[in-house]
Specification:
By secondary structure, this protein is an all-alpha fold. The protein has 21 helices and no strands.
């Protein structure tokens, strides 16, 4: 074997190849071909396959050279949370929940732990594979390459829905090759994700943070200086095309809070540039065109969203109460699940009922009004139903399944990472400023994203935080000033 082939199969190169594959396959969230999972399991990231191979390579590297891995301080509260969840799972079996729709306690617990292990695997791999600026650039480059693929497939869906270039049955057949779900019948763009809300979540928590940070800092991770700006525009268009109320709200609030916390200098610089340009004719024309473009874009976006009844109901609903408003806007069932899950928390506030077991307690704690006004819940209470309910909110799930102890340990992990972000954002070095803004955007986006989802297996809540922890683990431990 010659030297070039040997270099190709070096563990470092194999690891980088597999990590690039993980980044490329991130958009596929519900891959059809997963063993030992029923049809009711929707979170099936295709990236888990190259991730599993990558972990084997990383384990070999760790066994060969322990010094290559630095224990990040953020691992301590995260590991404490894992032990708390394990204790809650052991204690939860003592409460003896009855079998529900063929689902037994240990079966649900094993599934829940499998999802948590998958999520932690994404986090650990992101930490390991991002310990230098070169590795960060490699990660973001391949991440954006995966986003380009997602954009192209979303374009195929858009051409099918709105231009009728391709027949829906044919495009559905193509999508079913890799996804568990066919095209959305309401003509909402879902990309390579399971549903439009999942695509919006990916944009908000994985891709948009890096594109937004690139816009503010003018840092570019690719060789094409214009690419991040084009992808940012595509992300905005895709977000609108999902018609995801949760995704749109998450991005809007996250952008506002990010600019509020760290955007002062950028806003002042932009305002100074804008005001200083009114002295010449060209400057005035440019700024008038910019103002017009912003107004037209904003009005066009509102017009586009208003065309979808799913969105326009938010301001057109004639509701006599908050309860009526939630029901008429298809949020009643979600509130009912949260209410039922909180019933499990009220009964076992300190220990929780065990990881994955909150569904055993939801139906018995539902409020009376959902039986009358929510056909979705009524159909699920039918003896013919096989659905195992979920909380639909990660924070409520943590309270119910791991108790206050697990909830606060998970919060401690999140706050620990936030503290490191604040330290990084004080630095003036461009690459660290870029990293800090992307991490803060991700952190805020994940906080709001977790209010509408309850799975540990989704890479969205782990990946960017892992990248940040990996980049700062050594620097923040060895010096008070990041070089």
């Amino acid at each position: 074997m010659n030297s070039s082939v040997r270099r190709l199969f070096r563990l470092d190169n194999v690891a980088r190849f597999l990590w690039a594959a993980v980044m490329l396959t991130l958009p596929v969230t519900s891959f059809r071909y997963f063993p030992f999972m029923g049809d009711a399991t929707y979170v099936r990231p295709l990236s888990a396959y190259p991730l599993a191979l990558l972990l084997i390579v990383l384990l070999i590297q760790f066994l060969r050279d322990h010094k290559r891995f630095t224990w990040p301080a953020a691992f301590t509260p995260l590991l404490a949370f894992v032990f708390a969840a394990l204790a809650a799972t052991v204690i939860g079996v003592l409460f003896g929940p009855l079998v529900l729709r063929g689902q037994a306690y240990w079966g649900r617990a094993i599934r829940a732990w499998a999802t948590l292990i998958i999520g932690l695997a994404f986090f650990v791999a992101a930490v390991w594979m991002n310990r230098s600026e070169d590795e960060l650039r490699f990660t973001v480059k391949w991440m954006l390459a995966g986003f380009v693929i997602d954009i192209l497939w979303s374009g195929v869906q858009g051409a099918t829905f709105y231009l009728h270039i391709l027949p829906k049955p044919l495009v559905t057949l193509w999508q079913r090759v890799f996804s568990m779900r066919e095209l959305i019948r309401t003509n909402r763009i879902s990309g390579m994700a399971y549903e439009p809300a999942w695509l919006a979540g990916e944009i908000a928590t994985i891709y948009l943070p890096w594109l937004f940070a690139s816009l503010l800092t003018r840092m570019r991770m690719t060789r094409f200086k214009w690419l991040e700006l084009v992808l940012l525009a595509c992300a905005a268009l895709l977000l609108l095309a999902t018609f995801s109320r949760g995704g749109l709200a998450t991005v809007a609030i996250t952008i506002f809070l990010t600019l509020l916390f760290i955007g002062g200098e950028y806003i002042r610089a932009a305002w100074h540039w804008f005001v200083s340009g009114f002295h010449g004719a060209k400057g005035v024309i440019l700024r008038v065109v910019m103002i017009t473009a912003v107004i037209v874009t904003a009005l066009g976006a509102l017009w586009f969203l208003n065309r979808k009844n799913y969105i326009s109901r938010l301001w057109n609903t004639q509701a006599a109460s908050v309860q009526d408003f939630l029901i008429q806007n298809s949020a009643g069932a979600r509130v009912a699940y949260i209410w039922g899950t909180l019933g499990a928390y009220r009964d076992h506030p300190w220990t929780g009922v065990g990881l994955g077991a909150s569904g055993f307690y939801i139906y018995q704690n539902l409020p009376d009004w959902v039986m009358t006004f929510l056909p979705e819940i009524a159909s699920q209470l039918s003896p013919a139903s096989t659905l195992y309910p979920n909380p639909k909110n990660l924070y409520v799930r943590l309270l119910a399944e791991t108790g206050l102890v697990g909830f606060f340990l998970f919060a401690a992990f999140q706050l620990f990472v936030l503290g490191d972000m604040i330290a990084v954002l004080k630095q003036r070095v461009p690459i660290w400023r870029y990293l800090g803004i992307a991490a803060l955007f991700s952190w805020l986006g994940i906080i709001f994203y977790n209010m509408t989802q309850d799975s540990f297996a989704t890479p969205n809540i782990w990946l960017n935080l892992g990248i940040f922890v990996g980049m700062t683990a050594l620097s923040l431990q060895t010096t008070a000033e990041i070089p």
